[in-house]
UniProtKB/TrEMBL annotation:
Protein name as annotated: Tripartite tricarboxylate transporter TctB family protein
Stretches assigned to coiled coil: none
Stored InterPro entries: DUF1468 (IPR009936)
Pfam families associated with the record: TctB (PF07331)
The entry's keywords: Membrane, Transmembrane, Transmembrane helix
Domain DUF1468 as annotated: residue spans: 6-153
Organism: Tritonibacter horizontis
Membrane-crossing segments per the record: 45-63, 83-101, 107-123, 130-153
């Protein structure tokens, strides 16, 4: 089996576990007044798990490729050194650092830093475009979460607020 199918099989397992949690464990602790709402906190995870299951099944079953396509797979596991594994590793490390710095550094600093450094890792070199875009995106997301949804996100580092 090709590498893309193995990866899709792993994602299928994760999506099945996520779907089980979304369908059977998240809604039991809701208060009675929320059980009458048309949209629950588990609605998005349910939709996300169904889409991930369907997408990974399409890849595992090979339905995305034409039936007469018998050429070599697009991803060759014997040539993994030719792919940008280092870039992917740095991005994964950056995601972990973002998650760890979110509370102590605050949302605005950690998110703008994550977006800026992540874009630089991926190859963006126009810093005069990158900084304002990262700052604007961070500010908009913070306003939507804090102002519109009413969910508190510490905007600044802990020592400033």
């Amino acid at each position: 089996m090709a590498l893309d199918r193995w990866i899709a099989l792993i994602i299928l397992g994760i999506a099945l576990a996520y779907g089980y949690a979304a369908y059977f464990t998240m809604d039991q602790l809701l208060p009675p007044f929320m059980q009458r709402n048309p949209i629950w906190p588990s609605t998005f995870p349910k939709v996300l798990s169904v889409l991930a299951i369907l997408t990974s099944l399409v890849i595992v079953l090979g339905l995305e490729k034409p039936s007469g396509d018998s050429r070599a797979p697009d991803i060759d596991y014997r040539r993994l050194g030719d792919y940008k594994i280092g870039q992917a590793g740095v991005l994964l490390g950056l995601m972990v650092a973002y998650a760890l710095l979110l509370r102590p550094a605050g949302f605005l600093v950690s998110t703008a830093g994550f977006l800026t450094i992540g874009a630089m890792v991926l190859g963006e070199r126009k810093l005069w475009v990158l900084f304002p875009v990262a700052a604007l995106a961070t500010g908009i997301v913070w306003y939507l979460v804090e102002g519109v949804l009413g969910i508190f996100l510490r905007p600044l580092p802990f020592f400033l607020g």
